[in-house]
Amino acid sequence: MLSRTADNLFWMSRYIERAENLARLLEVGHRLSIMPASADGSEWASTLAIAGCQDAFDREYQTVGAQNVVEFIGIRNDNPYSIPSCLENARSNGRAVRVSLTTAMWQSLNSTWLELHSRRPSAESGAGILDYLDWVKDRSTQFVGATTSTMLRNDAYFFVMMGMLLERADNTARLLDVKYHLLLPEYEDVGGTLDFYQWSALLRAVTANRAYHNLYRGALQPWRIAEMLILRAEVPRSLLSCLVGLTEYLERLSDMYGERKESLRMAKALHADLAYQPAEDIFQRGLHEFLTDFIQRNDRLGRQIQRDYLD
Amino acid sequence: MTKEPFNEMRDGGGAVRDLYRGVQDWLDRTPADVMALKREETELLYRKSGITFAVYGEDGGTERIIPFDVIPRLISAREWELISRGLNQRVKALNMFLCDVYGEQRALDEGIIDPSLVLLNDAYEPQMQGLRVPGGVYTHIAGIDLVRVGPDEFYVLEDNVRTPSGVSYMLENREMVMRLFPDLFRSYAVRPVDHYPEELLSTLVSVAPPAAQGDVTTVVLTPGRYNSAYYEHSFLADEMGVDLVEGRDLFVADNIVYMRTTQGPKRIDVIYRRIDDPYIDPLAFNPDSALGVPGIMTAYRAGNIVLANAVGAGIADDKSVYTYVPDLIRFYLSEEPILNNVPTYRCAEPDGLAFTLDNLKDLVVKEVHGSGGYGMLVGPAATKDEVSAYAERLRADPDQFIAQPTLALSTVPTFVESGVAPRHVDLRPFILVGTETKIVPGGLTRVALEEGSLVVNSSQGGGTKDTWVLNE
Q: Is the complex ipTM higher than 0.90?
């Protein structure tokens, strides 16, 4: 297939995944900000940090508050880090390769884009913001559903899935990294209800709150949360789970093309490091150091895939 | 020429013609609210599937859908027989003209057409001189615009042999009507059009370069997603099952054209290009073009790639050459033209210019190189100021213009605000030329939605209709 087509497919699904992740982040921010113990607005600062747009935000706003952050990430379309920009980019990448999408995928992308205008709440009141965020998540789920149920399992599909998984791994790792002080309570004041809310919000941000109870059947324990989101292959947003998928699709691509590239080696190395690493080692080495290293390697993997197939 | 327009549905006394009786019954028995709902549904469906076109010079919502009128336009088997014979003849002559212009130039030597009109024309491409293209085919895809003025009177309004567009609407409109009004569709024996993409692919493959090895690799080359016809480019590539490429996806090495794929370079043989000549190769033509492929002209000249349509084909549809087409048919085929030209005044000639200037109020004046309805004057609809401004442009550069009487274009029933009313239409059938010539029975009917308007171009607010060519 055309390299450019593969590139558009890859970025189309990255942007959809990114829009969904931003919606989850805002939802969690909103949830925490209405908790009685929350007054300092630190929730919104960390939302910006996870979304990676703290600097861009600071250039435009004086204060970090619910209204400003929701407007910046959720509503504005002139901010390249926002939900509307992601949906627009996803659609524009999809439109460029209309031929390679199934009708169901294209209609999903296109309807999302067409409805966006009427769904977007006004920045002032913020009323209806939760409905809007639900809608964004629904559209992403619907798109992934359309993709997995209608697309041929060939190279095009592998590129779509790889874009999604790379973005997802990056998001989970950033989320953990920004919240790592919550998960390593020895550095912070422990106890109190706020911690519980924060942990549970963290799980919600990756839709793993039910999964946690299913896997661990007990009270929320910070190191278990970290272990789950890094090392449990059953959890679809864990780092390991993303790497399992990435390795699989790169393997299948190599089989199909009859050529093994550097990106496959990198994915396998990263996969192995996660799969055979005891949780204790990670905590001993330092969660933050581990996550920083992961984010860099994941990013390098993405760029290697770009070099091997998409340029 | 100011006679009553031919009404395709009703005769002079207002009675419904036999052909349209089924349509009338259907209109009578379908309640207005059902019809309104169905029409809303079509708009929604078109938008949802992204069947849009871009309008140049408009900000913001530049993606629009072309208004679609649900009442089909009917063409009887007998009428189609006449039309398709005429199209075959005309396109054959146009193609022979191109072979001749870029070959021996007999028509120029023998004075059939003024050589300076051809050789000094911007659309004439000197780089094509002496180059033999496979099968001698220049006009692989031609769109000929026809208007109807009487029962058996069809005129050719314009030839399009560069990159004619609109065929995706022919196919999508059919899908839409079959989906919305299966009963009406079933009540007529309508000849299918949906094999067009297959015919297009086999046409392109039939004239592949002799150098092509094994399976012929064909692609559609688009300027990209901001082009007004991008939807059509992707639609055709999709339907043919070939790659849709942009200039940056292709490169030339050792006079061979390759596309960049995830598995490395892949050689290609035939390019259905929807990029205009001046942009196709920055080394050979416009050096600023980012749309084209550097070196593709050398590969073309080396015979390693086929471009459809051929570079330089535009000289055959130039509006100043148009006026000579009937003569060219007589010259190359020794036949009388089956489809006639609209009477046309050449402003390049003193008599033509004088007549045009004296009668601007009654004429349609077009730029010789214009297309899409941009830059034309419709005399009867223009204000005094518009007419005098246009007259100045005419005097300044008369060679650039031709004039035609305002034709009484035929009318077809169409949904408008006040109900169903006659509106003016034209017809663009598509002719495919490979080792043989094929015409899918149908075409794009364009309709001027405003009362009395004769401008059917989609860029000027025209709409489209499904066109039914009947079996008998």
A: no
